[in-house]
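Changelog note: in this version the structure field was regenerated for every chain. One regenerated record is shown below for reference.
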Amino acid sequence: MKRMIMKLRFLYQLPALVWMILTFVLSSIPDIPTPDLGIQFEDKLYHFFYYALYGLLLALALFKQDKFPRIKLNYLLFTVFFGSLYGLTDEIHQGFVPGREMDFLDFVADVLGVLAGAIFFKFLINYFKRNKSSN
């Protein structure tokens, strides 16, 4: 029974892993057309929201894992740390892709996105805990 629960827990990590793979694949494409929003720094907005979703998925993965209790206890801190580290490696990777470039401000948008996604996850956890305890 415990083995089955452990296998099911992996399903919480799978979305973050798939998102990381998708990020690597998309970062390997030289020029990705994006919708023109007609605003300055729209690429930073794309980075922010893309990494906000990643932050949400990563927070879920770290919150639901049981192998590393310290990480589970401090999942917000580790989400921002690991998410930012992945954003940094993504920017470095783009520096080697023809037609792409490494951009420090993209990295800043990535970090802020991960932070926003992690905070939103924390908000959701607190919301559902409050509603569960009031019933």
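Spot check on this record: The chain has a mean pLDDT of 91. The chain has one domain: 2-28+39-134.
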